[in-house]
Amino acid sequence: MAGTGAGGNDVQWCFSQVKGAIDDDVAEADIISTVEFNHSGELLATGDKGGRVVIFQQETENKCQPLSRSEYNVYSTFQSHEPEFDYLKSLEIEEKINKIRWLPQKNAAQFLLSTNDKTIKLWKISERDKRPEGYNLKEEDGRYRDSTTITTLRVPVFRPMDLMVEASPRRIFANAHTYHINSISVNSDNETYLSADDLRINLWHLEITDRSFNIVDIKPANMEDLTEVITAAEFHPHQCNTFVYSSSKGTIRLCDMRASALCDRHSKLFEEPEDPSNRSFFSEIISSISDVKFSHSGRYMMTRDYLSVKIWDLNMENRPVETYQVHEYLRSKLCSLYENDCIFDKFECCWNGNDSVVMTGSYNNFFRMLDRSQRRDVTLEASRESSKPRQVLKPRRVCAGGKRKKDEISVDSLDFNKKILHTAWHPQENIIAVATTNNLYIFQEKVN
Amino acid sequence: MSEDVEGVQTGEEVAEEPKEPETKMISMEKAEEAKLKAKYPNLGSKPGGSDFLRKRLQKGKYFDSGDYNMAKATKNKQLPVASVEKTEITGDHIPTPQDLPQRKPSLVASKLAV
What we know:
The complex is a heterodimer. Chain A is globular. Chain A is mostly beta strands. Chain A is built from two helices and 32 strands. Chain A has helices at residues 283-287, 334-339; strands at residues 13-19, 32-37, 43-48, 52-60, 70-79, 84-86, 91-93, 99-102, 110-115, 120-133, 157-173, 183-186, 192-196, 200-205, 208-217, 230-235, 242-247, 252-256, 268-270, 291-294, 300-304, 308-313, 322-325, 349-351, 357-361, 366-371, 376-381, 397-399, 408-410, 422-425, 431-435, 440-445. In chain B, 41% of the residues lie in helices and 0% in strands. Chain B is built from four helices and no strands. Chain B is elongated, with a radius of gyration of 28 Å. Mean pLDDT of chain B is 66; it is low at 1-19. At the A-B interface, strand 5, strand 7, helix 1 and helix 2 of A face helix 1, helix 2, helix 3 and helix 4 of B. Chain B: GO terms for molecular function: protein phosphatase inhibitor activity. Chain B: It is found in: Cytoplasm. Chain B: InterPro entries: Endosulphine. Chain B: Keywords: Cell cycle, Cell division, Cytoplasm, Mitosis, Phosphoprotein, Protein phosphatase inhibitor.
């Protein structure tokens, strides 16, 4: 039996739950755009293209048994963002939730940041399970009592009521981004956070909505000279002065906010050298980094580009320490992937709780588990066909060419409309959330 | 190895049989590039450069708010319909906000929350 926290191939993954509609006719609003566990893993939030947030809560049946089967059920749902139109620029502002990030819990309420292309909102999710009853001057329905009938003093008391979960927007951080926000990241100081768009990164204080500090600006003086955009940014998990941002050219810059107010000059530049003679038309496009994530330890960071996942040691800038191919068989299909725009798909990646396994999505509703410690990898599928309770997921294999073995699927049969862009791993347990286009799958480690 | 050879031969046209996986990778990419150039000979010399980036930064651009609203209406298949609920003669009275047809609520609950 695998040890606690170990992932990858000792672990057998089984289906636990699936959320969302079964029908094939997917409304655009239902497309899931972000998935995120909170810091304890008890809550799982999803955002969709329709601007809605749904939060699930883990209910453990038996808290004494650590590996007992626990289910995630709907806890709260609310409309976070609405579509807007910028009249000045004639630009549509989509309500799609690009990212959700949870704040560490400080009191009974939960807080999360959700963002669309232009506006970040801080939401407070709180529980109400008591209400005052027996007002002196009012009836229960709110009508005022006839004052002549009041002869004694009645003091209200709190009585239990059915649990109500309320979500309210506590802060709205608006008007700080000219371009589309792609990332938000809460600082370990629990007071500030950053938001990044294509060309700029801003630093905010969670309490202050009317100003933010610009800390990175890569906009060229002449837009004709634009060659590179920011694709993702994240704060270091422990060092509150350090953050990284990735670019469309495949580089990652690490910045130290102590060095200067404007961090245009990086402290470290992570880039894998490439032989210029090997460059093709596609080289730059497929090297664009779609996601960057620090390890929980803070020693490593992981980047996802179109075909691979790379692990970088923060102490070594000139090349990654590990490179994993996600779907190398797509290299011979780049022409058609360019034509159908799939080459621009932005896949995310995530670490497991002890940084031993990383996960990322692919096409055909496949997702990949890459075990760093055992140097092994597996491809699994999120499908309705493998959705019987506790059904163990069978490894999938893609045949790149030549003779197709039984149980393999050929590259040309892959469904490129079924993309898994967003995945999340519970911070402590072997529970993963995998988002297909409009469904959320929850898989758990097989428990004997 | 025989498997390598099979993989190369069933793929697109490749100039020579590559000896190492690295060269196989690169020649695959170059072959794909050749295919693309054959289809789109006018593709710009700076492929991932300004054009693509500028298009990305301009995402969501409309001519004006009317253009945006028409696009939204057609997307939701909600073409503006002449109100049939009122039997009043057009021009009979000045409409008040209550008389105008209600905007159909487009904010529906997520199917994940069922």
